[in-house]
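Thread: Newbie trying to understand structure tokens

Hi all, I'm a second-year student working on a class project, and my supervisor (Dr. K.) asked me to get a predicted structure for one chain before our next meeting. I've only ever worked with sequences, so writing a 3D structure as a token string is new to me. If someone could post the tokens and maybe explain what I'm looking at, I'd be very grateful. Here's the chain:
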Amino acid sequence: MKKFIALGLTAVMILGVTGCGSSGDSGGSSSESEGAAVSAEDFEPLVLKMGNQQAEISLGTTLDKEMCERIAEDTEGRITIELYPNQALGDYTNMFDELMLGTLDIAHISPVETYDTRVSATMLPYISFNSEELVKVYSEGSFLREELNDALSALGIHLSGIFLEGYNGITNMTELKDPTVVGADKGCIIRSPMMDVYSLEMMDIGFRVSSMPYSDTYTAMQTGVVSGLAGASAMNAYLSFRDIMEYFYDYKYNQEATMIMFSQKTWDKILPEDQEIIQNIVNDICVKSASESDAINEEYMAKMEEEGLTVVRFSDEELEAFAKSSRENVWPQLAKNYPDGWLDKVAASLE
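---
Reply by user tm_fold:
Sure, no problem. This is what the structure looks like when written as tokens:
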């Protein structure tokens, strides 16, 4: 089915569906050949639509707004971006498909592995639990970034930046058994996102998992189907589950790494000098996200403690033990989801 969908989307792209989410305002000429640099003489100011999946009150939306303001100012009004947060333009999978088709200009969303599994590699467990290291891993010139550029370019998408929204922990209603012991049964069933990079890691740590959509999790906790969840940062846990949770375990097993992407059709309409301006601004925003997400993580864990919830932090040595087990036990299982030998190259690039 995935191949069928991918072929269908490719066919549509080949047939020339060139409309852009803001094509009525953009002034881009439909006669321009794809990939051709637009000339300054022919250029008209562009008004672009950008969607994100983040809530109105979130680090992602706050920095997206800053990015849009800076781009408008630094391009002297040649590029204006209208931001639609909180999935106003559809969920992340819909926005990804629209980027491929060119019917949406920009999106800040989670990776979608439907068409190329390499795209989900930003979410690999325990790539690092140090944000400064992650910035390097995701920056231009790194092996992983070049592979992501290649995967997304083939889908008609320009990857502009990888945004760090914080590490995910375990939100739970009950105290875990042996929380620091790798592989020891934790005594509960938790919700896991429907992705191997999550569920296999949770089982390696010692959880029993039930995969379900995030939107179903609160009710599942209320009814006792699960006692907690994976896939939420401290901020998300506090904002969405603080009235039902009792514990937050800061395992840092997975970095919430989202992507700022342009439709290639839109990117090709932008003047080369403005492309450089935009890229520099996005780079700044993504570096800023790393430091601010760490601060926000600590802020919301402190808020939990102020409300009487229990926060469990782990030492670097304990986190290293979880990371070592992940590389030895989880990554080999994940290897089947990627091109032959590819995950070994990712691991080698991190050494």
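A couple of things are worth pointing out once you decode it. The chain has a mean pLDDT of 90. The first helix runs from residue 2 to 14. Feel free to ask follow-ups in this thread.
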